[in-house]
Amino acid sequence: MRHILSILVENEAGALSRVAGLFSARGYNIESLTVAPTEDATMSRMTIVTTGSDEIVEQITKQLNKLVDVVKVVDLSEGRHIERELMLVKVRAAGKDREEMKRTADIFRGRIIDVTDKSYTIELTGTTDKLDAFLEALDKGAILETVRTGVSGIGRGEWVLKA
Amino acid sequence: MELKLPPLAETGETLTGAEIAIRCLSEEGVEFVFGYPGGAVLFIYDALSKQKKVKHILVRHEQGALHAADGYARATGRPGVALVTSGPGVTNAVTGIATAYMDSIPMVVITGQVPTRAIGEDAFQECDTVGITRPCVKHNFLVKDVNELAVTIKKAFHIATTGRPGPVLVDIPKDVSQQTARFHYPDKVHLRSYSPVMKGHGGQIKKAMQLLLDAKRPMIYVGGGAVLGEASHEVTELVRLLDFPCTNTLMGLGSIPASDKRFVGMLGMHGTVEANMAMQNCDVLLAVGARFDDRVIGNPAHFAAGNPTRKIVHIDVDPSSISKRVRVDVPIVGHVKDVLTELIALVKAGKDKPDAAALAAWWAQIATWRAKDCLKYDRASPIIKPQFVIEKLWEVTRGDAYVTSDVGQHQMWAAQFYRFEKPRRWINSGGLGTMGVGLPYAMGVKLAFPDADVACVTGEASIQMCIQELSTCKQYHLPVKLVNLNNRYMGMVRQWQEFFHGNRYSESYMDALPDFVKLAEAYGHVGIKVEKPGDVEGALREAFALKDRLVFLDIITDQTENVFPMVPGGKGMSEMILAEDL
Q: What is the interface pTM, i.e. ipTM, of the complex?
């Protein structure tokens, strides 16, 4: 099953490699990993999307908690949450396809953020599913380049993840 | 001209990074630092030479330094400290760090690093120490600011010795050891991201008590966590209070006296029939500071499927050890000593007693397994049997020696036949299984307990992996006794090849062995060769009588002897091969 782990880590050199190293050393999956500073400059927040049985995800959580640089771990998928991913896609947009490409981007609420005679760069935000669906809706040959941030997640409601 | 300043209070002195490092060790009460100098640690060695409190033990290879510090820690319970230089100093130390990590041994490892400005430039003797050691330390630090050095070393000792212990490494670039800072050693440190749970959950402990009292076929399984957590007194008290059978893992030996009739021997791949069968067939299992690893319960699916109604209570300070390989019914996270103390108090305060009739029937069943006498061997053999040597070693040392071992058959025989009465007497590499640890372990133990008998049970393959430390033993007058069970084979490799690889002894024969007696003599020690069973006891007595000499006993043993019982890899723990089966 797919799980979204939110992790607060000390903003120390090497914290990312401790976390990434744990996953590779113990053979756990990483589907995506994002990390950036938080409102508290001493901490970074990571979001890791992983897959595994409940037992494996329980082990992942325990092993993460054991890392000295990890302040807190929460499995967002255990409760109500929101997840978003940002994607930038450069697509072929010439001739008769140009108008069609814009329409498809509009349908997915994408924004065209860069334009040339032959291409568009589209910015799209949403769940992983939505981004996948957008890519599937395009003609494979039209996609020139894809950049995705990986999932960021946050709990719904007033609950916050704090040290 | 240098200014003469009035003396400052101790907390305000200006010291170099090197002096700070040594002062921190001194503040921590460190007796010995095991190490080897080199370019990046020259300032630290200079500071070391200017004081007397912390004694340095110069080894002959960095691996020996780490193992010796590790052995010291295992025997005393205090953190072992090692000091090595950058690059090859560190890479040589990695085996020792990983060995300590696998067995959760508290250590602080100080490593030199190239100057901060040179880091990343592929400087001479540079390696990414923090990167290389990251997967085999509990935590590590690279100190880039001399003002952070003291607090970092404090953190290192705190992390190494609390919760589930482990090695912590502090990497100090050469320029940091040269720069100065005001020295202040904090009394304690707080890390918001590190606070091991010590006290067990009261409700869970009650549940555990009820399960134990309701059990018809109970079993208590005690691992290295009980030794590390100083809980052997509580383990023994609980076992005696309930009159339940108790087994120890390789790492847990000594946590209950082997002479106690409730002790059913070691369990696992080379465990006794009674221990393995009781584990497999019990209805309630209490696991204390153990981790159900592959050498203990074998195949976890077989362990679970063979007895699906078995209830398991697991006490461990590390939550990640619980339900890792085997699903547990009542997890209790906490310090084993504290949790057991609460559990004992609950049992004593309650009216319920274990079911005496069920327990009697269970003990009767265990007696039938015991009657198999699974550790029997040919005592009348004209060739020296390795088991016989260990039995004689026990007799000669009255079961009171510190026994270190290397890794292989001799290790298993020592574990099976030296009946440990006390914790921290059995010093071996259980998790990583590192050949070569035995001699440096014995050095660390002998330094800690100079008046105690220290024996290293080894083999002719293992001993050669750190043989250079015989020189260290000479330098520091460490009269340990080496019991070399010399069967001219890497015995455990040979045993697996005999059982599972059609007797093809691929590269497991030790050819061109040195004359160990002459080798010992060349290092300035005493060597004795023993070839007949009748000479074993006399040689051992002679060796231990030579109080101030290291004695290397080269004992020529049966080449074909195997360790029994044996659970083949991947099999269930009740699927043992016994000597009589072959």
A: 0.93
